[in-house]
Amino acid sequence: MIENATNEEVQGQIETENEREGLKVLITSDNPQEELIAKLANLEVEVEWQKIAEPLTSLDDTFTFRHLKPVFDYADKNGIDVVIAVDSTYDKFTLGVRKLVTGSFVLLNIHHTSLILAKLLLENHGSLSCKKSIFITDLLDKLFAKHEASITTIPNLLTPLKEQADFLLSEPDETLFISENQEILLKGQQDSLGYLLSRLILAAKKAKSEEGTLFDSLIEIYTDFGFQREKNLAVSIEDPSQKLFFKKVIARLKKKPPMTLGMTEITSIEDLSNGTLKNLLSGRIIPSHSPTANALQVQLGNNSRFLIFPTEQKINFFFTSHGKLIKKDDFTTLSQQFDQRVVKLLSEINRLGLEN
What are the domain boundaries of the chain? Predict the structure, then answer.
């Protein structure tokens, strides 16, 4: 009896270890993804599908924590390692990964996903270039520079990417296109979505076998190039009064910028419309290296900057903050601190429109 009990205990330990070693993936989408599931299952990982509780509703819509909370709750209780939300119509996807092998989930934003994916592709492709939206992290520029690979920033890279001139007229080689709307497309791959997700799942499988997760890949990038937090925000200006308000804000920054925003010094203002960058400390004006666009980029003295990019319907704000990541646990704290900085900064920007 004792021997049988011991054998059962050992067998239970083996089963638990096998369960822990195998990667479990959950795909959530509006429609079943049989082809994608079959492709990922061929990688010898366990894959299941759930209908998403709240699908995307427009071209500009993106997956958020609100869309994925129900599947995160399920994944947490059922030992899932990676959650993939997919809108295959427009090649949009996002990932939820665990911070630790048995830790809580974190939803990767488009900047996180593009960094992890680009690093994987650069390390495994002989020739890779990139064309990214101006609203995507510039850490990609540093990553591609390290691998001596070409990367181009495009002011207007809209969804769906397949219909944009920049995509259609580009060379038929392996070029990674990234928009701020969670759309990532690898030109030159017949099944771009399946291929890119396969690369990510293989990396997640390898990481788990080494007691890590895809989150560790992101931390490695931040360790190499410095931590950044990016935030995309859009404000509707369809109302004439709103349009006039922000027109006043932009005019003030162009013609008579304040020396500070709140308690933070403004060090330079870059006018992408005429290709100039003015150093407010020295008064010197030099050529800008950013792409031409009807936009302003304001650099602050606290390692933060923001881009103001108006269109007919909205004002786009793209905030970037730099910091030092000492350890993995700093990620959440720094992200929250930088998000609070954005809220205060928006308040100060709005004050410019209220001044006489």
Answer: 24-225, 227-354
